[in-house]
Amino acid sequence: MSVMTQNMNEMLLRAEADGRGYVVAAMYKFVTLTDIETLQQTIINLCTSHQALGTILLANEGINGTIAAPIDGMTGILEWLEADSRFGGMSLKFSHSPTQPFLRMKVRLKREIVTMGCPEISPAERTGTYVEPKDWNALISDPDVLVVDTRNVYETAIGMFDNAVDPMTTNFRDFPDWAARLAEQQAPAKPKKIAMYCTGGIRCEKASALMQDYGFDEVYHLQGGILKYLEDVPKNDSKWQGECFVFDGRVAVDHNLNPGSYGMCHGCRMPLSQDDMQRPEYVEGISCHHCQDTQDPERTARFAERQKQIQLAKHRGEAHLGASPRNSK
Q1: pLDDT averaged over the chain?
Q2: Is 198 a catalytic residue?
Q3: Where is this region: Disordered (predicted)?
């Protein structure tokens, strides 16, 4: 039995035992793909036939995505991927959701499967040193290690590892500039070792390759990212603080990989705590305290009309395509 099949079966059995409706799979692999146009339609057909929704990105450098499907559907999709040798050893993280967290199925062709704006960086050829979740605590406890969160501010706002540095990026394209400034530092300020992490492992894998190009010799990254760490490391032993932002209708997951406590502002896409949604600035489907003063009137009016149509559809007992599950908490 392959590692993919074994991990898949373990999570599917857990989901079935818990009575959860959907298995959520976050996946990626840096691998050379020469037939992405053909592969795009094949994967669309595959996911449609197995009742999966979500987003998958394809580029010549590999595959990246997150999908949710019923247990039987996810089994079929992963068995198909497993049969294609190009996807052997794919990074896979599983969680579950009682409801479908996505609205539609999209398979998109991209220049990069995670956009850093440095297409010359090739993690398939060279990257940093993988660190398994079970070894991560010891690494980040080393005083000579600079722990770097490669995610963006709307993600770091709700959870980070102990003592991690936040580059305060709003987009992954901002990360190379921050890394260049770090590389320009002189000893003793310049770190000897760097440990990087992100949600599922893909951004820190690419970022670690970039750091090597900037002259850092000891660069490590968390294999499988935060999601794999939460899956493997018991909460009592964890150095993770808070919840983990995810790019679907759950908004965040807790340490048990169950849907977390956060909602999301439709206006600025910032995660919102339960207290945030009680503030007077919060207007469901329109704005929150992060964006209320910066929205233009035309945009506000458009969001208000959209929210009105969602509420009318709800009263009629109908689903509205624009009613993202992100705003339902």
Answers
A1: 88
A2: yes
A3: 307-329
